Amino acid sequence: MSSTPTKEQKLFINEVQGHQARYRKLIQFTHSSTKAAGAMLVAAVVALIVANSGAYEAFLEFWHTEVGVFFGDELAGLSLGHVINDLFMAVFFLLVGLEVKYELTVGELTNIRQALLPIVAAVGGVLAPIGIYLAFNATNPETAHGWGVPTATDIAFALGILALLGNRVPNGVRVFLSTLAVADDIIAILVIAIFYGHSPSLPWLAAAAVVLFVLVLMNRNHIYSLIPYLLVGVVLWYCVYMSGVHATIAGVLLAFTIPSGSRVNIKSFLTWSGDKVREARAAFEPETPVIAQGDYIETVQDLSRVARQVVPPATRLEHRLYPWVYFGILPLFALTNADVSFLGADVGAMLSSPVLYGVLLGLLVGKPLGIMLFSFAVVKTKLASLPENVNWGHMLGASILGGVGFTMAIFVANLAFPDEGLVATAKLGILAASLLAGVLGFVLLFLQAKAAQKRGVAYLSASGDDIARQTAGDEAARESEELLRDLEDPAIKEELEAAKKRGGVFEIAVDLGPTGLLGGGSIGDVREAVRNEVVRVLREEGQDDLLEKVQEEFDGNAARPPLESVQETLLRERGEDALKEALVREDEDVTGMSGDEKK
């Protein structure tokens, strides 16, 4: 598992501990799917408010401002709105492409049997919304072309909502939903490229193909620096933009050419880095300022230079892009595209439009219906099975979250309809469906989580090795690792060690039993539950000296009542006042321990 914050803190001098703590919080904040979804939601709400206020005209005029480069009297540029939709969204699609490549290379899409369930479910989640949309619009040539709008899931919003439930939902639900959304994105990319581009220019397509060939050659010739790929990627974007195919496809194409391997021979690096650490230790002079230790600095610089190159370029780029995309580009996209205005609009025509109901019901009904039907068919034919610890209630909740379309759906709506009124109507359907799907999916999964809580079950996922997780899984993994560190139950520790030996990502269902205690509620189980709670409290209060003594009392007096060891230790070490204070705290915590109120 990854290093704990305590171990990291020891690497830095005392004077910068505060800076490091703030930096870690910033990194965790900007890599949180929940916070990212919140940022997009705030941007969408602001856009709706502005769109229905007197500032809307100035708002539109601002986004139509032209930016670019002057050549004499000629301006080569785009409006700010097109910069966001065509240029910045290409960066978003670059990140999507990197996530797809990760899944295809080392993720869930590498094992066809594991991937079959979410892939087939994604196909169902595309076909059913198309059928529902066309049921309302097939006979209308002006609106029939919008069938692609309700087909895509917004992975950021869906996983952000799921993250609110923490470890009360099995990791299999998160894996299923994220893999489904990735498969969904692949289908959406193909739909945009094939059905929603302009008539392509063959010369520019040929130029784009040549540039793509150059990128593939760079990959095959083991060029691992990111800068050449990004520079050539800009040329690829321009060729695709000029070809008439939507320019965002260039981001996906670029992602698939960026190397996912390391230029460093890992086996040799392990030996070499060990030698370098020993050289640095030998060269270091404790009494001399670091700046004056030339040999030491040179050795450390060699180690740092090579260590940076161990991480594959695709992984480096994905982690660098994540905060910029999810806290910059996507909120900007929401701000400029979620502007449904009712001022001067024919609200009656919008509410009676077949586009509204095709999009709304396509996302809200078609998505979960298609996902569930195709999932049920795959499981019943035994081609695949439900993920570990996942039931059909979990699947229904995840399927409903699949109806959160937002980013991709709005993106396709802008491409599908030339008429601004139809675009606004489609956006209204997308926003309404995404809101309802998000709330309903969350409530259903929350009820499943409450049922698990009543049974005393928590689902802890972690990694048996230092694999490079997708960013979306980091938040859940951090939470699980913190909980795992606090567990003292020997049976769980034994299961944890066995799972770690297998490697990869694993999940442990911690069964607290019908009594809310570990196991079935026997005296031995009560002792273990009390031990875990005492250990947690003493660690939180920083009483490490007492912690070891209390554990010794527990281990050496198995036949005694559970709290007696704690009381005797407190009395012996701290006196009657400490024991009384602890009993008062225990009495205050009774309500929280009963489960009626979250501590």
From TrEMBL:
Signal peptide: none annotated. GO terms for molecular function: sodium:proton antiporter activity. One of its GO terms (biological process) is regulation of pH. The keyword Protein biosynthesis does not apply. The chain crosses the membrane at residues 36-55, 75-96, 116-135, 147-166, 173-196, 202-219, 226-243, 249-266, 324-343, 355-379, 391-416, 428-447. The keyword Membrane applies. One of its GO terms (cellular component) is plasma membrane. Keywords: Antiport, Cell membrane, Ion transport, Membrane, Sodium, Sodium transport, Transmembrane, Transmembrane helix, Transport. It catalyses: Na(+)(in) + 2 H(+)(out) = Na(+)(out) + 2 H(+)(in). HAMAP family: NhaA. NCBIfam families: NhaA. Belongs to the NhaA Na(+)/H(+) (TC 2.A.33) antiporter family. This is Na(+)/H(+) antiporter NhaA. It comes from Gordonibacter massiliensis (ex Traore et al. 2017). The lineage of its organism: Bacteria, Bacillati, Actinomycetota, Coriobacteriia, Eggerthellales.
